[in-house]
Design brief:
The complex is a heterodimer of chains A (about 350) and B (about 170). Chain A is mostly helical and about 350 residues long. In chain A, about 65% of the residues lie in helices and about 0% in strands. The radius of gyration of chain A is 22 Å and the shape is globular.
Chain lengths: ~350, ~170
């Protein structure tokens, strides 16, 4: 391993970390602006031009607030809860290909932190350990409402994990690879997976909403039943971490949707422009972020449009609605890929 | 060199956290230490170049089974310290049982020829492609049978958990 490689990866890690944080920060502003737009009001516009300094002011406010810890809370676990949530939220950004590759001084630098050959499984693993932060935080606060909220959040996340994994499995079946880089590369030239996997796409997006605990699945937080849910007892920046990790999750989920179903950094006519390799990569990254912004907007759009589910409806929808659809989609995909492999559709092209 | 340091670090954490599973007073701490042990074992798998096994280990054990453990422990609220005080005869039986298992373990390990693992970079069996090929060609029948076993266990659990309609 030569030194330039290590330094390059370190720089990439820091850049992606900072980007995720800044984007999540401004996603809170975008959320409030869009909420304002949907409800025919202005939204935050006092701090800075167009309220651009609002996230900074919010962050400062959270830092200045009193740190409060319940008397009988488990101290270490109480602090571990929000920290773990934040850590896990940032983990999956490591395998997402943020762009093609840059060629600098004859060397190729891929815009992906870790191109592991089990990228999709890594994402599954990160999703599956996402419940720990919430469970630990809810339990450690030593509050019945927090515990009930944590249990609710965790059971919701576990239930929707299944359908989500099933919908990603179909992608793996059609592309024949577990590496996210390979999956994105195969969607080159408008071969976007969304055209071949429409059902999988819908299931995945719905599950992504449920996994991030966003409306219409924001049941863990319920003022009349559970007060604040799992973060009832949290204050100051610990609460900030919980709220903030929701936006990071949203950003990463949007990036996953864009990479798995909408071609990632690929864009139409990218070979016909006649630009240099590096230029294409940079445009590709910009296009990827445009796609991510669109899905981020979709998250907010749905939050301010749809009413929320009731809890039993949510569970029934997850287990009896989405999961059968995902399994049926998987079986149909397997069947059709087998037919294609055996040249069953050859008569169509004759 | 780096992998050697990693091996010692992971082994140290694994042993300490495995001990803490037994020593910690609160059941919830035990569950969390057990999760940490699973993570360190996954690290060992990665050092052996078995990435698929490592990730599946995390998904299944840390992501599913331990979360259910956590659920159970939290909801039963097994938080009263010293709840596990057992009678003398129970301790006696437990000591004999544990000692016998220890003897069996020693006996097995003594006769076991320690296979030297070749260079993990060269043994590619842990990679998902090779593992999948082996699993779906050489070991297809055991694989299918074990999935049927899992399915029947799942159906049985649902049957038992179902309330009577009367």
């Amino acid at each position: 391993m030569d030194m330039t490689f290590v330094i390059y990866k370190l720089i990439l890690c820091v850049v992606i970390l900072l980007l995720s944080l800044v984007i999540a920060m401004y996603a809170t502003l975008a959320e409030r602006k869009i909420a304002g737009f949907f409800q025919d009001r202005l939204g935050p516009n006092r701090a800075g031009t167009f309220g651009l300094l609002q996230p900074v002011a919010d962050g400062l406010k959270l830092f200045m607030k009193e740190e409060f810890m319940p008397a009988n809370a488990d101290k270490i676990l109480y602090i571990m809860g929000p920290s773990l949530t934040m850590l896990v939220a940032l983990l999956s950004s490591a395998v997402i290909p943020w762009g093609g590759s840059l060629i600098i001084a004859g060397k190729e630098f891929a815009l992906q932190v870790a191109d592991i050959n089990i990228g999709v499984l890594y994402v599954f693993a990160v999703i599956s350990i996402g419940v720990y932060g919430i469970m630990i935080g809810g339990w450690a606060s030593n509050n019945k409402y927090a515990l009930m909220g944590a249990v609710r959040a965790a059971s919701q996340m576990i239930s929707y994990e299944l359908a989500m994994s099933m919908s990603i499995v179909t992608i793996v079946m059609t592309t024949g690879s577990l590496s996210l880089n390979e999956i994105v590369a195969q969607q080159h030239g408008m071969n976007w997976n969304v055209f071949t996997q429409p059902i999988g796409f819908v299931v995945f997006v719905i599950c992504a909403f449920a996994e991030t605990n966003r409306a219409p699945f924001d049941l863990p937080e319920c003022e009349t039943e559970l007060i604040g849910g799992y973060h009832t007892e949290y204050s100051s920046m610990k609460l900030g971490f919980y709220l903030f990790s929701e936006y990071i999750n949203m950003f990463i989920s949007s990036a996953m949707i864009a990479s798995l179903y909408f071609g990632g950094y690929n864009f139409p006519f990218m070979d016909d422009l006649g630009l240099s390799h590096n230029m294409i990569t940079i445009i590709g990254t910009v296009v990827l972020f445009a796609k991510i912004s669109f899905f981020g907007f979709l998250f907010m759009w749905i939050r301010w449009t749809l009413p929320r589910f009731r809890y039993d409806q949510l569970m029934r929808f997850g287990w009896k609605g989405l999961l059968p659809w995902a399994i049926a989609n998987m079986i149909i995909t397997g069947f059709i890929s087998l037919l294609i492999k055996n040249n069953f559709f050859a008569f169509l092209t004759k | 060199m780096l992998s050697q340091y990693l091996f010692f670090f992971l082994s140290f954490v694994a042993i300490v956290s495995a001990l803490m599973v037994l020593l910690s007073k609160k059941p919830i701490h035990s569950v969390l230490y057990l999760t940490l042990t699973f993570f360190t074992l996954a690290g060992h798998y990665i050092l052996l170049n078995a990435q698929f096994l490592a990730v599946v280990h995390i998904i299944v054990y840390a992501g599913a089974i331990m979360v259910l453990f956590l659920f159970t422990v939290m909801l039963l609220n097994l938080n009263i310290e010293g709840e596990f005080q057992k009678s003398t005869i129970m301790k006696f039986i437990a000591a004999i049982g544990g000692g016998m298992i220890f003897l069996v373990l020693i006996g097995t390990l003594k006769s076991f020829d320690v296979a030297t693992v070749g260079n993990p970079e060269l043994t590619q069996i842990g990679l998902v492609k090779n593992l999948g090929k082996t699993l779906y060609s050489d070991y297809l029948l055991p694989f299918e049978l074990s999935s049927i076993l899992f399915l029947s266990a799942m159906v049985g659990a649902v049957m038992l958990g179902k309330k009577d309609k009367q």
